[in-house]
Each structure stands twice: as C-alpha cells, then as structure tokens.
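Long-time lurker. I teach an intro course on protein structure, and each term I like to show students one example going from raw sequence to a predicted 3D structure in token notation. This year I'd like something fresh instead of my usual example. Would anyone be willing to generate the tokens for the chain below so I can use it in lecture? Attribution to the forum is fine with me.
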Amino acid sequence: MLAGLSPLALLLNALLAALAGFVLGGLWYRHYRALARDRARGTGLAERRGWHVVERGVDFAVIGNAGPVAFHLSQGALAHGDLGIFVETRIDRSPWVVLEVFAVNSPIAFTARRPGQAIRTGDAEFDARFAAYAAPARRAAELCDADLRAALAQLPRPYLMIQNGIVVLIWPWDRLPTDAQLDAVLACLRALAAHATPPTQ
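-- Reply from a regular --
Happy to contribute to a lecture. Here you go:
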C-alpha cells in the first residue's frame, strides 16, 4: 500500500505520525508530573496524620486509622467521568445489616443498589438531603445516629455502603481530600465502630 503513495503523501504521513507521537508524549509527561505531584501531596497528608502511603504501580493509596479502625483511602473514577475519593474498611463485630445512605444529588445515586426498604432517620434536614435503604431496617436506623448523620453532612454529595461490617464511603472530588473532609471521615468511622459488639474477654 505504501508503494502506491507519492513522496509528498509519505512525507505527510511521517509528519502526522511524528505529531501524534509528540502529542501523546506530552500527555504522558503531564500525567506523570500530575501523579508525582499528587504522590508528594499524598505523602505530606499521610505524614501530617501519622498515616502512610502505599504504592500501587503508578498509583498510590493512603492507609490511615480512626482509633482501632484501619482504612484505605484512594482516588478513582466515578460515574459520568467524575473523579472521587474512596474510603474502604472493615469494622469487626459490626451489626449484621446492609445499609446504603447517599446524598440525593450524588453521582452514584442513579446506580445505587437500594437494598431492602427505604428508611427515615427522623432528622428532617438530613432526610431531605439523603436517601437511605437497608435490610433489616430496624438495625440500620440505629446505625444512622446523630454522629453518623453529622459526619456525612460534612462531605460533598457522599455515598455510604455498609454490608455486614464492610464499609465503603465515596464522594466526588478531583484532588486530595481536605483536612475537614478527613475529619468527617474519621467521625463517620468512629460513629459506625461505636455500634460494634465489644470483644469478649
């Protein structure tokens, strides 16, 4: 096929290939610089809190703790191309319940699982901003206490899933979380841990 092309066409093809390589190289370099910058900021965040950073290939995550509860914090893609912060943990001896609480304007609201039945917390302001679904509903209502509600209200459009002690907390954010957001995360995890059954002696 190339044999049938004129010298000018071959030259244009070579120039286009070189231009594409230059553009892709520039994009890769900017992405690499952004990752390096975020890793440095993530390391600074972890050091301030007494936490640590773990490498995941070209990416990284922060391992922190809220009292006895260790958690994993990272950034990833949400629905519709948004970036978000992901906090994942497991709280031992938690109530056997599936609970989903999310801001009604959360980007995850459209794909939420909505397990069991809808519940109301009795907090009119919170219930106007958040939807909650659970099974069994009685246990979930106990988890949605004032401390948990206050912590969730401090995060931008959050989504919380609890399934028998496994906790996933997500909110849309395109940079590292602020200190206020981290404080809200710690308050949220402490509120959930307060409902765990005390260990037997």
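Some talking points for your students: The two ends are 79 Å apart (CA to CA). The beta strands are 52-56, 59-66, 69-77, 83-90, 98-103, 117-118, 130-135, 159-163, 166-172.
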